[in-house]
Amino acid sequence: MVNIQENDNWKSAVKTVKKLDPKKLEIVKSTLPVVKEHGEAITKRFYKRLFENHPELKNIFNMTHQVSGDQPKALANAVYAAAANIEDMSAIMPALERIMQKHRSLNIKPEHYPIVGENLLGAIKEVLGDAATDEIIDAWADAYDVISDVFIRAEQELYKNAESQPGGWAGFKDFVIDKKVNESDIITSFYLKPKDGEQLPVFIPGQYITVKVDIPQEKYTHLRQYSLSDRPGLDYYRISVKREDPIREGLPPGVVSTDLHKLFHEGDILPISSPAGDFYLDINSNEPVVLISGGVGLTPVTSMLNYIAFEQPDRKVYYIQAARNGKVHAFRSHVRNLSSEHPNVKSYFIYEKPTETDRQNQYFDKEGYITLDWLKEVLPSNKAQFYFCGPTVFMKVVNSFLKEWGVPEKDIHYEFFGSFGNLEDE
User: Under DSSP, is residue 401 helix (H, G, I), strand (E, B) or coil?
Assistant: First the structure.
């Protein structure tokens, strides 16, 4: 049995919040509606200021998210939610954990917070104009100090956790691509081993690593998070990367995913940060588990599946994967083999547009899309822990099905990069 322990000592920092002056607290509360109304305009202006004043920070931020508008929207949600809950930030603990885990994985440090604060306050002043009086800006400056103090103290605990465990490390560490495997027409797995040959720290199934990629033709370093797609306790980490083509006209293809596919080979070096993330299997439970994924969203739930199959043989698990067809479906044979070899594992595949080969070889169990009626047919009940990951639209549909079926909120878990809120907010 792999020995995995969750370390939640960072939560004490969230529960211990510096008090904001009552008068300034009242000013922040009274101006929250206008800050929310102009939230995206403020954060867009913030990023413009930030990168003009500190272009070196482009080595940390995902610039594709800047082009698509995802990052400004996520930050606007975060600023509003944190300020709205400044008296008791533990009320938004799940969302805080998501951001703090990402910060730790990206190596965000205390010295970054004053830079962010200066440019955020400047953006508020520029967007709101004369309405942002000195008194209002001063109140928001103190509020930002309170919020950033919580993040800094909690993230310091996360750094300690990552570094103190057996095999742990700080920052980025060089790994060798030991093996590169094509899993489908668009997904490739990279098996990574530490260059120094040291022990690998364990992780909780569902977590991710950050990969640091320097591309010759690119001015700045690129950081990307990829879920670990195999179980902990092995002598390698595995990430399974989808080649990201442009999602709409005017947007570039995924810079890092494309170059990983084309330019990186066995024997090459990839610096990575130690595993992080708030989406992970409840390893201390023996409740039945339902794993639902769409497309490359299968990566974290496949890690969970492998862990349960080999480490929790008495725990029932239902693995449901939706894909366009067999050409883009990764791990099909592996999952079917687990189903036949492990009595506690059941698997179902849904193909939107199956090919003739898919039909001839009976590669799928359902054609079309996932439906609530179908879930009720293949699952014995809604008494299970549900984990799901995939495109936003897919997850919103799955989430609505589970709510309609009466699955309790505590049993619904999903992976959602880039958002401070939840699926209902999107």
Answer: helix
